[in-house]
Amino acid sequence: MNKNMNLNISKIVKNISILMTGTVLAQLIPILLSPVLTRLYSPDEFGILAVFISITSILTVFVNLRLDVAIMSAHENEKIPLKNISLTITSILTIIILMFLILFSSFFKEMFKGIDYNLIVFFGPLFFIFFGMLQLTTYIANDESQYHLISKSKVDKNISMTVIQIILGVFKTGVLGLIAGVVFSILFPLYRLRKGILRKEEKVSDKPNYFLILKKYKKYPLVSANTAVMDKIATESPVLMMNKYQDASLIGFYELTKRTIFIPLTFISSSVSQVYLKQITEEKDYKKNIKLTLIILGSLVIISIFIAPIFIFWGEPLFAIIFGEEWRIVGEYSKILIFPFLIRFIISPLSVVFLKPENILLGGLWQFIYMIVSLIVALKYLPLGMMLYLKAFAISEVLIYFLYLIMIFIALNRGKKGV
Length: 419
Description:
The protein is mostly helical. 83% of the residues lie in helices and 0% in strands. It has one domain. The longest helix is centred in the first third of the chain and has 39 residues, at 2-40.
C-alpha cells in the first residue's frame, strides 16, 4: 500500500508541476510587462477595470450553473449531456445579462463612471459567454488529465491579454484597452483547449434523459452555484463598495496590488486545486486523501514563508522603482494585503473538497459566514479610510480562513465515515 501511495503522490506532484510551469510562465510575462501598463494607463483606469472584473466575476459564477464541475464526478455516459446542458445554459444566461444591462442601465451606469456605458453592454455579455466556454473546456481537459494542455492555455491567456492591452494602450484607447484585453484574451486558450481535447463523443445512449441527469446533479445549480456566488460577493464586493466610498485612483492601487501579488498566487493555487480535485474525486481511501492534503498544505506554507518578507520589507521601494513613483502607495498596500493573500493561497486549493456532492451544503455554510463577515467589515471600515479598511480586512481574512481549514478537514473526515 505504501508503495502505491508513493507512486500516486509522485504522479500528483508531476501533474501539479506541469500546471505550475505553465502558471509561472503565464504570470511572469504580465508581471514583467506591468511597468509598461502602469505608464500607459492611469490609476483611475485600473480602478474602472477593477469594477468591471468584480461585477463580471460575480456573474460568471452562474455561467454554467456549476454543471461543468459535475463533469468531474459524473459517469461516462453523463458527461456529454452535462456538457450540452452547460452550453445551453450559458447561451440563455448571456441573453438575460444583456437584457439586464439594457433595462437597468441607470443602475449600472453609476458603477461605471468614467467609461462609455455602451462598451459595458458590449463587453459584459461577451466576456460571460467566452468565460463559460473556457471554464467548461478546462474542466473537460482536467477530467481527461490533459494538464500539459491546460498549462499551455494559461500561458496563451495572459500573454495575449497583456499584448492586447499594451497595443491598445499605445493608441491611447483608455480603459477600453484594459477591458478589451481581458475579454478577447479568453479566445486564445479556448481555441487551444477545444482543438486539443481528444474526447470521442460517442453516443452512449440514443436519447439521454436530460431531465434525470439534471435531477441527479441538482445540488450543483441549486446549492453549489449559490455558495460560489456568496464567495464571489465576499471577495469582490469590497471593490464595488470602494467605488462608492473611495476615489477611483485608490481602487486602481488596490487593483495593481491584486494584479501583481494575489492573481499570480491564485493561478498557482488553482493549478494545485485542479489536480487535487481530480485526486479526491477518484480516490476513496481516506488516509491517502489526508496525506495528500497535508503535503499540499505544508508545501504552500513553505512557499509563503519565502514570499512574505519581500513585500513586508521592500514593498514600497520595489513598486516605486518598477511601476513609477506614482504607484509607491501600492507597496504600502502590499505590506498589509500579503497576509490575507497568502492565507488564501495556502488554504483555497483544498476548498475543492466542497465540490463533492456530499460536502456541498457544508461548503455553503462557510461561504455564507464568509460573505456576512466580509460585508460587515467593508461597510464598517471603508467609510473610515482605505488603510484602516485594509488592516481590518487582513485580520478578518486570516481568522475566517483558519475556520475554513477546520471545515475542510471535517469534510475530508466524511470520507472516512463513507458518507
